[in-house]
Amino acid sequence: MNLPTNDFRRTWVMTPEEFHMHDACRISSASEDLRGVSNRDLSKQVREMRALFRRNKKDCRQMVPGALAILVEAAHRTLGLRPFTVQIAGALSLHRGYLAEMATGEGKSLTACLPAILAAWTGRPCHILTVNDYLTKRDAVEMKPLYTFCGVSAGCVAATMDPDERRLNYDKGVVYTTSKELVADFLRDRLIMGSLHDPTRRLIRHMLFKDRNNNEGLVMRGLDTAIVDEADSVLIDEAVTPLIISQARENKLFTQVYGTAGRIAKKMAPGIDYTADLKYKEIILKKNALIRIEAEAKKLPGIWRNPARSEELIKQALAAREFYRRDEQYVIQDGHIVIVDEFTGRLMPDRTWRQGFHQAVEAKENLELSNPSETMARRSFQQFFRLFRHLSGMTGTGREAAGEFWRIYGLSVVKIPTNRPCIRKQFPDRVFGSVDQKWTAVMDEIVRIHRTGRPILVGTRNVFASEKLAKMLHAEKLEFNLLNAVHHEEEAGIVRVAGEEGRITISTNMAGRGTDIKLHGKVAEIGGLHVIATERHESGRIDRQLFGRSARQGDPGSAQAFISMEDELIRRFVPKVFQKQLKTVMEKKIPGTAFFAGRALSHAQRAAQHLAFTQRKSVLRMDTWLEEALSFSGPNNL
User: Fold this and answer.
1) Residue 126 in contact with residue 119, Cβ under 8 Å?
2) CA triplet 97, 138, 340: central angle to 5 degrees?
3) Kind of pairing, strands 556-564 and 430-432?
């Protein structure tokens, strides 16, 4: 058998997409020649290829096509899954350091295995990052037969694991984990290493004290290759907030101050004492409020009586009241504030807001104030992922952020075609003047579609909206499954059956990224899964992720969004004058309403995305400033 190599000449200029597909076709063809090879001979070829990669880790390009051809056949024999040509193209793009845009349902889990095995064969650490603990465990278990056949160990690191379990799994050839766990473990190891995080210091210590274990207490064995699944979520959306390792410190004065500030803020009225800027989430205090704060500040202890400090405290308390709502940005569990990730809808029980804001929200909800946290180590996701020698990723929605991927991470986006043409029907948005009108229309649409027997997935922005819709469906005596940050234990199970005939599934943004919604029975014959978005998001990528749940792998399906002029996106990013004009146009039913509403929505999403990008650039500038300002401090510069 002649295995393909990279030594051919291109007779025409190809785009990166064409280049990867061209090579993938050659590899797929070569893998067909391996069908008649015995398991023993195939295993021998795997061992020989693994040895070549280990010996020639600096330049394995010539061996990649042949190795992938072997892995395609190995996957078919061990998993019963033969990678499609588009999956091979995706694997090639990952190995070559690109960000592959692969549509939802195109088999990204299997695609990631192939370059991960090539990376593990070199003996260097390889991390595959997914969006939650369930997927890390699932993929590590489901793909294990392929890894074992290829002589690669695979493990997973989840939030519930202790240091010994983490160390055992990080020693594996391929490690599945989440970005939060990986960054947190990296920071903990840096804290343990202290000044020895510098390689020169480690080398000197090793030379002086050869009998001493320099890795004592560490859980990771290093960083080299990272393959990021749902890369837009990990590398873009989560990049706004740095990950911080902190330790709670008892500070009675601190809790007393925020409790007092919360009580003062409750006496203030919007429009009279302050105005709230919803777009930038800022509080502007009025003159009479400043006078009142000056008088009330006498109740604050010590340095907090300073006008600047007292004003900042009150602004923080008012911001907690105006911009942070229960069952939207957070939930209350067992008397504690638990933050909800606004991009995924998942709970983050180990996270707290910084600089006293967490205590401000607790004071607002009349909860016992927790102790403030002292920062031990800090690292942004942007800063962390640029540490990898080899970084690549996959997502179904990469082209909107292609420029940012390149500027920050040096990642070029390559669009991988679908295995089968997408036949999703995308219906025009339906726009309403008020939220109540929108919810009534959503209910009518659910009832109408449900009568046909088609399964329905309804996407909501937050917990509050999902619970509201659940009550409405319950009143209509319609059976449904609810999936949100509060009811998330059976996430994979709920998403897996969402394609059954007559199913109604309500979900926040968390809806099963990574879990297929497969059509059951005769569902395909009656139109497939119908997706309803009850609100547009700041990022069009999140809307596309939701719509991408239907019509996977050539299945039929449809999607439609329902919008009101009172939705947060419109209220926050469309000028108030334009909002009033739109409502007037809608009330009078003037022709062209849909056009003007579409323009307003596009403007709002562009403004929101620009603001988010500005925030991410600010985080990046802060990282750079900290590196330069603290470069003299050595071990403290984490």
Assistant:
1) yes
2) 85
3) parallel
Q: Which residues pair with 158 in a beta bridge?
A: none
Instruction: Return the pLDDT at 83.
Output: 96
Q: What's 6's DSSP letter?
A: S
**Domain match, 351 and 403 both:** no
pLDDT at 446: 97
Cα 210 vs. chain centroid, distance in angstroms?
43
The β-bridge relationship of strands 282-285 and 274-277 is: antiparallel
Evaluate whether 81 touches 110 at the Cβ level (below 8 Å): yes
**What is the extent of the structural domain holding 198?**
16-242+381-415
Domain-terminating residue out of 514, 541, 564: 564
In whole angstroms, give the CA distance from residue 232 to residue 165.
Answer: 29
The candidate with the shortest Cα–Cα distance to 547, out of 566, 563, 534, is 534
The CATH code of the domain that includes 219 is 3.40.50.300
Q: Quick: pLDDT tens for 443-499.
A: 999 999 999 999 999 999 888 898 999 999 999 999 999 887 665 556 767 877 889
Does 238 share its domain with 262?
no
Domain match, 356 and 390 both? no
**Same domain membership, residue 397 and residue 444:** no
Angstrom distances, CA of residue 564 to CA of 434, 539, 577, 589: 5, 17, 16, 15
End-to-end distance of the chain based on CA atoms, in angstroms?
Answer: 51
Contacts of 471 (CB under 8 A, 6+ apart): none
Write the DSSP assignment of 517-565 as a string of letters. Answer: ----TTGGGGT-EEEEESS--SSHHHHHHHHTTSS-TT-EEEEEEEEET
Q: Classify each residue of 72-108 as buried b or exposed e, where b means 16 or more C-beta atoms within 10 Å of its C-beta.
A: bbbbbbbbebbbbbbbbbbbbbbbbbbbbbbbbbbbb
Number of domains in the chain: 3
Query: Does a structural domain hold residue 188?
Result: yes
Contacts of 346 (CB under 8 A, 6+ apart): 132, 340, 485, 488, 510
Q: If you search the block for the tokens 């209509």, which residue do you land on?
A: 476
pLDDT of residue 3: 53
Tokens coding 604: 């709002």
Residues 41 and 186 in one domain: yes
Q: Which residues of the chain have pLDDT under 50?
A: 7-11, 632-638
What sign results for the dihedral spanned by CA atoms 471, 475, 476, 481?
positive
| Domain assignment of residue 316, yes or no | yes
Question: 409 and 527 in one domain?
Answer: no
DSSP classification of residue 176: E
pTM for the whole thing? 0.84
Cα 492 to Cα 110, 133, 341, 392, 495, distances in angstroms: 18, 11, 18, 26, 5
Residue 598 confidence (pLDDT): 82
Q: How far apart are CA 212 and CA 216, in angstroms?
A: 9
Q: Is 289 a member of any domain?
A: yes
Q: Which two tokens stand for residue 536?
A: 């547009």
CA–CA dist 606, 368 (Å, integer):
40
Same domain, 132 and 160: yes
Give the domain CATH number at 270: 3.90.1440.10
How confident is the model at residue 211, as a pLDDT?
59
